[in-house]
Amino acid sequence: MNRLNRKSTPKVVDGRIQMKNNWQESQNYYNTAAPRPEVVRKRHGKGYRHLLFQKDIYDFIKIVPDWGKLSQGLNAIVLAPGEWDTFGYHAPGVVHICAWDSELWITLTESGFEREREICERLSVPVEPGAGGVLCKFTESTARAHQLLATLLHELGHHHDRMTTKSKVKASRGEGYAESYATKYTNRIWERYVEVFGLP
Predict the structure, then answer these.
(1) CB proximity list for 117: less than 8 A, separation 6 or greater
(2) Does residue 2 surpass a pLDDT of 90?
(3) Would the pLDDT of 31 be above 70?
């Protein structure tokens, strides 16, 4: 018979065993407001690689207009592990940029490519019909630009959406709002982007 050998007797209060460990949720950027966003770089995951460094994010936000206002309520920008069908995502107070496919070239569905067509044309990414969709021949430079100008600005669009609602609880205007936000800001900062990061 296997017996559970306790190292110490648990404390009992009013007939109930008390937990020994601290069960209170630890503070982190998902549940704790920060005076300014931190940039966090997590492991990229198998089959992916990070093309962005923390310095790239800090350099980028310097050229984003109205950053002081936009960053209110933003606790972190996370360089997150790669996901096969996701460029990035938003959670209240946190935006995520997923690591890029390690092969650089990616195949998008036709509808997916239509959503990315404008940024691909701006970045002069060669494209061709491929098996199951459109093959986009990114380089490190153009993929990095996509992550900053399309993904980060898109997810900041969701953040802006949430922060401009009455409750500030969730983004309510959807993908169209975030897409328009990213396009508008890309047009505004394109020349400064090229000055800081070079022509992709």
Answers:
(1) none
(2) no
(3) no
Between CA 48 and CA 103 the distance in angstroms is 8
pLDDT value at position 13? 54
77 versus 169: which is more confidently predicted? Answer: 77
Question: In this structure, which amino acid lies at residue 71?
Answer: S
Rounded Cα distance between 46 and 102, Å, is 9
For residue 10 the two structure tokens come to 């648990």
Q: Is 156 exposed, middle or buried (0-12, 13-18, 19+ CB in 10 A)?
A: buried
Q: Which amino acid is at 195?
A: E
* Model pTM score: 0.84
Write out the two tokens for 51. Answer: 């093309």
Q: Is 20 or 51 the better-scoring residue by pLDDT?
A: 51
91: β partners: 94
Q: Distance between CA atoms of 161 and 177, rounded to whole angstroms?
A: 8
Which of helix, strand or coil describes residue 138? coil
Report the candidate in 119, 74, 116, 80 with the shortest Cα–Cα distance to residue 97.
80
DSSP code of residue 167: S
Q: Is 45 exposed, middle or buried (0-12, 13-18, 19+ CB in 10 A)?
A: middle
Residue-wise burial string across 100-136, b where 16 or more C-beta atoms lie within 10 A, e elsewhere:
bbeeeebebeeebbeebeebbebbebebeeeeeebbb
CA dist., res. 37 & res. 72, Å (int): 9
